[in-house]
Amino acid sequence: MARNDDFFLSRWIDYYGKHLGEEHLYVFLDGEDQPIPKNAGKANVKHEKRVVEHVVRAEKRRLGFLSEVAAFLLQHYDLVIGVDADEFLAVDPRCGKTLVEYLSEIKVTPSVSGLGLDVGQKIGEEVKLDETLPFLAQRQYALVSSRYTKPSVISRPVSWGSGFHRVQGHNFNIDPNLYLLHFGSVDYDIIQGRFRDKDRMETGRKRHIMKRAKTIDLVTRKKAQQGDAWLPVARSVQTWVRAPYAWNKPNMANWKLVVRLPESFRNIV
Fold first, then answer.
1. Are residues 45 and 113 in the same domain?
2. Residue 120: helix, strand or coil by DSSP?
3. What is the dihedral of CA 156, 161, 163, 164, to 10 degrees?
């Protein structure tokens, strides 16, 4: 479900359409004033009535709606992937398998997560994003983030928590070869544009957007570790460290790990 997000949504349709087929994509536009993406093709795009409310209430309503949609789709599909417009679920290229091939082979009961990578712009080294080129051909660094290690893939009806961050009443399982790449922090200028979006500001999303700017700050000033060596360690930490008030969500124990992405990740998104 998206609003005022054509830049990411168009990329989302291209990426998942290539992997899953456009006819298997379901996009819900938040408001009848929202234009249908020009590259929608055979994707199932529907307008939902716009409800203006604070982000906390809006997210609860949004994920309740999307959980119901996913439950309906599971009557026709073996698996459903639930992600935001700036999130791309990817298989480690070194596996040599497509997303469909890999998900068809693993056990999903009732969900599986990819390790969260919050890709950010390294100011002073990486220039303004060229919209005609793949993201990862231009961005080499990411903050390893438990916030984006989401139970994105489900095999039976569940209730997603706000932002897809957890499945209520169930544990999580982080797959060793899946990654959820978040690109909300991919470019400083894009973030500045979000602050000028009146719809986002009216619904209390300023703090959320400021977190994205913080990712760019961390990626810029912290020394990056080699992803090949440290991503397995981060996956283990997120599996075993739990906050007592959120046992079914991964945690990094306030460890701000910035990594240089493996060379094999170039051009996958």
1. no
2. strand
3. -20
The predicted structure's pLDDT at residue 211: 72
- CA pair distance 245, 172, nearest whole angstrom: 15
pLDDT at position 248 over 70? yes
Q: Which amino acid is at 10?
A: S
Full domain range(s) for residue 154: 53-265
Closest CA to 152 of 180, 124, 132, 191: 180
Q: 126 with 8, same domain?
A: no
- CA distances (Å), origin 248, targets 147, 165, 197, 205, 210: 12, 9, 33, 25, 26
pLDDT at 207 over 70: no
CA distances from 90 to 18, 106, 176, 269 (A): 12, 14, 12, 8
pLDDT band of residue 201 (cuts 50, 70, 90) is very low
32 and 126 both lie in a single domain: no
For position 31, what pLDDT does the model report?
Answer: 87
The answer to whether the CB of 260 falls within 8 A of the CB of 224 is: yes
Q: How far is CA 209 from CA 3, 126, 127, 215, 259, in A?
A: 15, 20, 20, 10, 22
Per the structure, the count of domains in the chain is: 2
138 and 21 in a common domain: no
